[in-house]
Structures are given as C-alpha cells and as structure tokens.
Amino acid sequence: MSDVLRAPHAIEYTYTRSVGPVIDRFFAGLGEHRFQGIKGSDGKVIVPPTEYDPYTGETLTEFVDVGDVGVVTSWAWVTDPQPGQPLDRPFAWALIKLDGADTSMLHAVDAGDESKMSTGMRVKARWTEDNVPDMSSIACFEAEAG
Amino acid sequence: MAERVAITGVGQTKYDTKRADVSIAGLCREAAVRALEDASVTWNDIDAVVIGKAPDMFEGVVMPELYLADAMGATGKPMMRVHTAGSVGGSTALVAAGLVKAGIHKRVLTMAFEKQSESDAMWALAMRIPFQPALVAGAGGYFAPHIRAYIRRSNAPDHIGILVAVKDRQNALKNPYAHLHLEDISYEKVAESMMIWDPLRYLESCPSSDGACAMVVAAEDSVSGDRAPAWFAGTAMRSEATQFAGRDQVNPQAGKDCAKEVYRQAGISDPRREIDAAEIYVPFSWYEPMWMENLFFAPEGEGWKMTDSGATAIDGDMPINPSGGVLSSNPIGASGMIRYAEAAMQIRGQAGEHQIDGVRTAMGHAYGGGAQFYSMCILTKDKP
Prior knowledge:
Strand content of chain A: 25-35%
Order of helices and strands of chain B: EHEHEHEHHHHEEEEHHEHHHEE
Structural class of chain A: mainly beta
Oligomer: heterodimer
Largest sheet of chain A: 5 strands, antiparallel
C-alpha cells in the first residue's frame, strides 16, 4: 500500500473553571492548612466536600472541620515517579481517611520505602510553605510518627 | 397505547455573559430546582433524568452527564445524555417525553446547559485541521453564504435581517431571563454595527451565554403543580447529511419533513392560522424568514414579508420569539430547550411581560449542526 498523508493534529485550548461555593471554601481552608468536609444526609462527613448529597440530591451546606491526620485505607507503590507527580522519589498513592471524615481522598505518601507502607497506617499532611488556596498547598502525606 | 405527556414544570437561569459564582453543576442545579418547584415535586418524585449539551469540546468536560449525576439527583435512577449539536436542547426534551409516552417512566427531569464563559465555541467550531486552510469562520461564517443565497433567491430587501434583530432584542427587554437587555436597541444601531459575516452584522448575531434550562415532563396520571400543564400534541425529529448533491441548504428537506410530521400529529393543516405563538431557533437574524418558509408559515420566497409586515412581532398575527429568542440568549446546549420551555410558558400563562393573550397552541423548534438536525414540538392548552 502506498504512503498516505499524515500530519500531527494538535488540539489545544485553555479552558476556565469556576469551582462553585463549596469547593471554593474547601480550597480556602487548604490555604490556611486545614481540611473541611461537608455533612451528608446520612450524617457522614464527605471529604473533599460535594455540593449535593450523593443519596438524596439535596444541597449540602453543613461544613465540618476534620483533621490533617488520618488513616491509609489502601495504597499503590510508585517505583518510578513520572514528571509532574507530587514527588520525585518512589512514593505511594494512597486513599486517606482523615480523622473525622467518612470518605477517603487520594494523595501521595512520602514513605521512603515500600516496606514502610501498610493499610491502616496513620499519616499526616505535609503542607507547603506558601498558603495557596488550592490543592497545591498539600505537598504530600507522611507517616504520623515521622 | 401511548401515554399522554405534559410539561408540568419549567425552570431557567438568568442568562449572562459569565456566571463565575457557580460551578457548571451549580448552574444546572438552579434551573433544575426551579423546574421542580414549578411542578410542585421533589427529587424523590423524579424517575429518570435526561440531559443535553453541545459537544464536549465546547467546555472541555468530557461526559458531563457523569459529573452532573448528583447535581441532578440522579442517584439510583436512569440517567442519559443526548447529543445533537445545536438542536440538542429540543432533542433532549423529546427523548424525555418519549420515555413518558412509551410508559417507561412517569416523571422525567430534563435539563440542558452551556457555560460558554469557560470555553470558546468559536474555537471549538473552527479548529485547524491538517491539510486544510484555517477558515476561523465559526457558525456565522458557515451560515452566511446560505443566507446570501436566500436573499438572492427570494429577492428580499436588505433590511429584513435588521428588523429581526431589533424585534427580538425589543422582546428580550420584556423577559427577565434574557441575556441581552439592550435598552437603546434601534434600527440604526443594528445597521451601523460591524459586518462580521457578510451579510450578517454583529447585532444580527446571537451572544455567547452561560445558562441552563430544565423541565419536568409527566404522564397524564402524574401531572402535578398549581398551574395547568402544556400538553405535547406533536413531537418530531429529523436529520440529514451536511453535504450531498442536490442538498438545499437554504430550505433543508429534513426541516420540512420534521415540520410536516409534527403538524400531522397535532392535526394542524394551516400552521400560521392554527399556531398562536412560536419559539423558533434563530441564532442569526435572517433565519427567521428562512424558517418561516421551511416551517410552512409562508410560501417559499415570501417568509421575509412576514417579518417586513410586522406579522412576527409580539403583537403580530404570528408572534415569533416573544422571549427574545436565541438572538438574545444563547447558552448553546440549552437554547433548544429554552424554545420549548418558552412555548410551554405561553400555553401556561406564565410568560409575564412577554405573555401573549390566549395562547392555546404553541410551537417549539430547534436546529443544529450544518442546519441538519431538527427537533420540533407542538404544545397545547387542551389535552390532545
């Protein structure tokens, strides 16, 4: 078969995102180095907070402060970190249930070595120096005792 | 036996250039909550959710129906998304109506939206394709030659487009939800505005809007609310390819077929006499006279005479777009559903300052793509 024309087709556009009032407040809290969840219709605390109840669809409004310490509910070890990932050395992606929360959020745990990771281990947020009101305020998590 | 289907609730957001205060979900939520309130129902009373929006590229949210499930109270319920370009708001409502008509669901929430401030539809419609020159024309550029062909074919005078632009913006001043409230709109103002897609001037084109529209569609035994519903007396959709030999882009066959079918179902033989008000998808001024012919309100070549004589004005014998239409508010994905919602509001007597007295039969119309997707409904005050 003869060659047919081929060319790169780059599609690039910078969209805007408006986060809405709930995530706006969550991000503002991160800028002050604290986590907030929101109470659902079943009394459970959802972190990060959602605008609407996952069961009833009602608008959620009751913010709850939760800790910056929590427990690892599951994890996966990253042997070769890729550019753009939170850490440039081997680390764990982990589901972390913060104290006072009933849902887990995904973040990186700087454990040093896979042998240090375990489900049920307690981890604490390591905050960045600058108080930016978004997810970048969380550098990563680390073992609580460490 | 098919169920009778009615619109029992409508909800709209105020249309605006930018709603930075809400997420996409928050914007959609406003319209949905208002529709539920209008129908006097709660999230629990809804059996299924059908949403629609323009192509994902328009906002860069892929599969927004998944992200919007909680905002639409869809947990534990069927939820689906309809996609027919600019006509999607109309098609979405008709899919919802079809589910009720078939007896599958009793009450369906349907919602359509666009948050144009977070994106650029012009970019999405005119992206550079390899081996082709960049046209950067967008929708207006696509339709301009077809408008030119209409003018040549019908010998319409040049000012018709300007009259439509002025009329729809004057109507918008009576509609609190309309995006454009141009208090100083005038013939001169439109005539002097920049020619952007010859023969279309800037003020003959629709704005870019943020907004959402929602409706509650219900079976006869599930009609609710304090206000009498608007009944679907006819529903139809038709499609055709963007290009084929012999295609008439000025007066597309799919539009004519769709109109004939929706009139047949509703028992309408003389649309201009039997329809009291119509909300027709007119994103560019000249599409009013063009659709008047495509929808058989006027003989071919004479649609412009309806505009010229004032017949399509809010106090004319065939009021077109009393809400101000797409020319005054264009959250693309929602624009078709807004036509249906506004037609329902005219039937239900809830259109406020732009209410036309005694509307018993109204038409909602949407078109999309390269004038190739059509979605139409006839709504009536009396049960069909």
